[in-house]
Amino acid sequence: MKIAVLGTGMVGDAIGTRLVELGHSVMMGSRTAGNEKAVAFVAKQNNGKASAGTFADAAAFGEIIFNCTKGVEAINILNSAGAGNLDGKTLIDVTNPLDFSKGMPPTLSVCNTTSLAEEIQSAFPGIKVVKSLNTMWCGLMVNPGMLNGGDHNVFMSGNDAGAKKQVGEILKSFGWKENNIIDLGDIKTARGTEMMLPVWLSIFTSTNNGAFNFKVIR
Amino acid sequence: MKIAVLGTGMVGDAIGTRLVELGHSVMMGSRTAGNEKAVAFVAKQNNGKASAGTFADAAAFGEIIFNCTKGVEAINILNSAGAGNLDGKTLIDVTNPLDFSKGMPPTLSVCNTTSLAEEIQSAFPGIKVVKSLNTMWCGLMVNPGMLNGGDHNVFMSGNDAGAKKQVGEILKSFGWKENNIIDLGDIKTARGTEMMLPVWLSIFTSTNNGAFNFKVIR
């Protein structure tokens, strides 16, 4: 499948690399086609499946879009990617609206009565937004088996059942077991997973270990 | 030990009952000394260890205070309990700032840049506030063993190490294993656990089961 990864940070790199490894054709999008990190990403894949371009190039290329941008910049970036390049496609929103401008620990730029995922869905009604994977370190997103035999949880929120099914298939290809994928409901439920970031950061800080995840025990 | 439980709801009843069972003397505090639920709570304990009174009576009685009031009313209630009755004592804050006035799902009346626990600590600097137990259904708070052999987590946030130690002992008496009690740090980290409520509610709604808890897998 042709997949766009928007963003050149650790998360975009981890997801893009894993998608290429699984045989997908991946275009990494960034502000400029010659972005250093995107070029390095392409260079380290050795099966010719990776490419780089602008946000608009990548959005036009991908049948599915991973949003791995900085949360507070996401809507501007999606605007520059162009609604026409995104409409009708599934967008997997991995970002969190972390605002570091007021010091540490970061606060959320939106929360409680809305969420970044809802803001994106509302700004781009033609996109099928599915919030997922945003509650953990990127190493675990694409390789859940590195912890507890993969027995921990990933959440999903979105309005479109078909898009969530598509995301579920990708998650399973990453190694997530079906019964560990929790569909929380519509896109409003993304408030809950985005609001897990403060406790995530406190656990990270108090244990000095980011390679953890939550499991719902029932 | 003499313990005050402020609040007559399900949470206060579950915690008060468990404390009496463990041999503590418990006074349940409410607006009026003759509160129906408090009277019923006292009547069902049969070892003479339970009593009821006003918030001020209970606060004066307890060496330790459990705050099991409605979060949005907590500061008013603590004011009516009286700083003079509370100062120097450990207050275990089990409440969440859930605001149901804007419809379902509830939002939080405070979050992100502060928390209810911080607001209480700031309004009553003489109290040693420890946030704990607020991330789960009350049945599990006092009986963690009913799920997965007790193997899931409870969090703690607070500024006073001695108070957190005291709370840790109470949690252990409830059945929490030491390595499942996670000290997140100072009272500011209560933002994280209070902000888990939206995802808690979404999991509850999507699975139709409130008897679950989170386990940090690492």
Keywords:
eight-stranded mixed beta sheet, Rossmann fold, homodimer, 218 residues, 10 helices, globular
Largest interface: A-B, 42 and 42 residues
How many distinct helices of chain A? 10
Oligomer: homodimer
Q: In total, how many beta strands of chain A?
A: 11
Order of helices and strands of chain A: EHEHEHEHHEEEHEHEHEHHE
Name given to the CATH architecture of chain A:
3-Layer(aba) Sandwich
Average predicted local confidence, pLDDT of chain A: 97
Largest sheet of chain A: 8 strands, mixed
Kindly give the count of domains of chain A.
1
Output the CATH homologous superfamily of chain A: NAD(P)-binding Rossmann-like Domain
User: For the CA atoms, what is the radius of gyration of chain A?
Assistant: 16 Å
SSE blueprint and pairings:
2 copies of one chain form a homodimer.
Chain A: E1 2-6, H1 10-21, E2 25-30, H2 36-44, E3 50-54, H3 55-61, E4 64-67, H4 74-81, H5 83-86, E5 90-93, E6 98-99, E7 107-108, H6 116-123, E8 128-132, H7 138-142, E9 154-158, H8 161-174, E10 181-185, H9 190-194, H10 197-207, E11 213-217
Parallel strand pairs in A: 1-2, 1-4, 2-3, 4-5, 5-8, 9-10
Antiparallel strand pairs in A: 6-7, 8-9
Helix pairs in contact in A: 3-4
